[in-house]
Amino acid sequence: MKLANALFILPLAFLAAFYFYPLAAILRISFAGESARGVWELFTDAYYARVLGWTIFQAALSTLLTLVAAFPAAYILARYDFRGAALLRALTTIPFLMPTIVVATAFSALLGPRGSVNLALMQCFQLEKPPLAILNTLWAILLAHTFYNFTIVMRIVGGFWANLDPQFENAARVLGASRARAFWHVTLPLLAPAIVAAALLVFIFDFTSFGVVLILGGPRLATLEVEIYRQTVNLFNLPTAAALSLLQLVCTFALMFAYTRLQARLAQPLRLRPQAVVRRHLQSAGERIGVGGYLVAMLFFLMTPLVSIVVASFAEGLGYYAELFVNRRGSITFVPPIDAVRHSLLFAGATVLLATALGLIAAYSLHANDRQPSSADRRHSFLRRFPSVIHVLDAVYMLPLGTSAVTLGFGFILALGDLRASVALVPIAHTLVAFPFVVRSVLPILRSIQPHLRQAAQALGASPARVWREIDLPIIARAVLVGAVFAFTVSMGEFGATALVARPEMPTIPVAIYRFLGQPGAINFGQALALATILMLVSAAAIVAMERWRVGDAEF
Amino acid sequence: MSKSNLFLLALLVLVFVLAGCAAATPTPAPTATPITAPTAGPRPTVPPPGELVLMSHDSFAASESVIKEFETVNNVKLKILKSGDAGTALNKAILAKGNPLADVFFGVDNTFLSRALQADLFEAYKPASASQIPAAFALDPDFRLTPVDYGDVCLNYDRAYFQKKGIEPPQTLDDLTKPAYKGLVVVENPATSSPGLAFLLATIGHFGKDKYLDFWKALRANDLLVTEGWEDAYYAKSSWGGKGGDRPIVVSYATSPAAEVFFSEGKLTEPPTGNVLGDGACFRQIEFVGVLKGAKNAAAAKKFVEFMLSTKFQEDVPTQMFVFPVMPSTKLPDFFKFAETPKKPAVVSAADIDAHRDAWIKAWTETVLR
After folding, report:
1. Whole-prediction pTM value?
2. Are B84 and B208 in the same domain?
3. Does B265 lie in the same domain as B165?
4. A358 CB within 8 Å of a chain B CB
5. What's the rounded Cα separation, in Å, for the pair B20 and B334?
6. For residue B236, what are the domain limits?
7. Which of A151, B3, B114, B310 has the CB geometry, 3.0–4.6 Å to B354, for a possible disulfide?
């Protein structure tokens, strides 16, 4: 099994080169000549304690809200078969990749003091002043975080649920349990690994949230990430920034470590079933009304801001779209929309391949530990001799998600030599954020595969390759796809990775959007909205296409 | 996992990685030209073009034709590295010191001037036309940094709003704290936004280091709204930019009203907004260019500095970046007649800014946000 170890090294090598090395470089520079006391003073500063407390508070609340809101969606898409399900899934992903500032203008157009909701309410009730004032409050942050991360819960929990055998629940029901009891005591515990995985990802995103908090929450509500940006860019106070980055990292790591311990306890081999068996059509009228009602509410919540962007982009008919193709000022920074789409898809494609491959390997390397080891394996696999290494490793794989983009970006400048200004850095930076999604999405389902399935196949004479193809692949295919879609989404939306690199001229759609929004004038605003609409369209089409992709004859 | 399986996987990964790298290398993008070594080449008559790397912030822009001319005349290919906002770009350049990412850096403004000079990033180079630059702009007597353009950060107001309400638009900073303007003003957070910081500096220059916080206290009491950045203030909170906002007074640039006309597709003949131009109500940002120490192509970098002061480039500046060229003789485009300039912008020295930036922003945060 030397090859296995060699392979398992790949994700680590990737992280070492593009994460730990740059991070170490920036931390070293930051703390050079800095007394430990100075850093300690920072941690005892009441202001930063307040910032940390607030960051955790808003993230926890946002996560809880997202879980509650998206849980029914996970159930519906896992258990029911109806037309348009794939499109629905693709649509709910779109918020995740929208540039924050575009969403902020949409929220303002809807909920601002002169937004349509307030105007309508004022007209209805003959009010003098706009009744809704949620922008720049905690509510706006919660609303926006739920809007953005809805898809994480829906996909990760739903993906797991889709392969969960309904027999368990049915058995409980037959034995006399009420629906609620069967759910609480059977389904929920079985789903726990996926729920915790999704919650963790959502929490980390909310914990390190930058744009959403800054723009929708207003500057009064600063998080750690905001404070790191301020210290790094504005004050160039690297020691403080690095100390805060470390604090953020320690929090992420602690959380992850606790999670991996919990996860190992929660996960149990299950009889997973193909979706075709699990899914059913809507039957009773009550079912139809319940499911239909929820879906309408969900679409209303997720789509209204997006639709308002699309509608506004057509304010001049096709005028804004036509203008996209004209380089009126003969500017060297003009980006033909086709190029922006091409660059975006190119980076996203590369990210999907890189993140899926690395994520899959990482998930297998983590899973290798908790499988029943045969004595031969035990002798050879170095990872297996140190079980605790795996727990640490699992946590380590998630660290890039919890790292400040500015800090890491500066690390790149210090550490990466000629690669610093290379365009290859873009998919690499995206992969750092995307590949934890693949790991989190694949690992729960990998752990649920009954070991005796593999053993039976082996006993029946299947080659290891065949065992993987016939047993593992059909079961994990869906989860891999979920991870791949996330990787695509992360890359299309960019997630501040732009700040990571000094990029040459290969602007993506979000970059072009920001360029338009950087200048005043109705046409600039209109073109930004038109490009945002194109971003939605291209992404939705690509996601639907990915979802149609099937592995062999496996119907998952 | 078995050997053959893993082998398969390894192969797959290798393919993926290769595919990823291949996809990521710049394909026929027009800007990407091969870097040719000066020694190689069977055509000795025309030396192959060298490469000049320009590092700048995200707002850098120029006309294609203008850049082309520079490239042809100097037989050099210009590569532009956009590196984030002005602060981020400069900090990256500082971190890359000794092994610079680029040859020439454009976009250090007077709020970052001292940091850039202290970091000893730039090589002194006095361009031939330096004597024509007005002394007010040439803040570095050694010309490690050469001024290229300037623009004033001012408050824009919504003309239609004040006409409809029958109120006079504000004239001075003091006006903003009057009851008539309660709940009308948006400013950007100086901790995260460059116009936000410029406006804070205007109030420091105007009221003085001891008094400016009193002004902010009064402004806060008058229902001030603070946003994270310019985009949000202008497009989501202003009463004219996007939709849904209701604030008719926003910190922006003195040229924004002109840009509104320019970007209206001929729909507007008059700007929808005006500027508050009272004494000390605006802060002047001056942008500089410099040759980076350790530049691979220092000769071309120096030529680029010269070029940025040439008539060709200076005339290009207003339409591309909506700022004023530093060369006084430059002909301005027609729509710039709407771009007003304050008679007396507030003044704070670069050294003062650098020394007190942290303290001022902290004090402001405590006063306005806590």
Report:
1. 0.84
2. no
3. yes
4. yes
5. 48
6. 153-277+337-368
7. B114
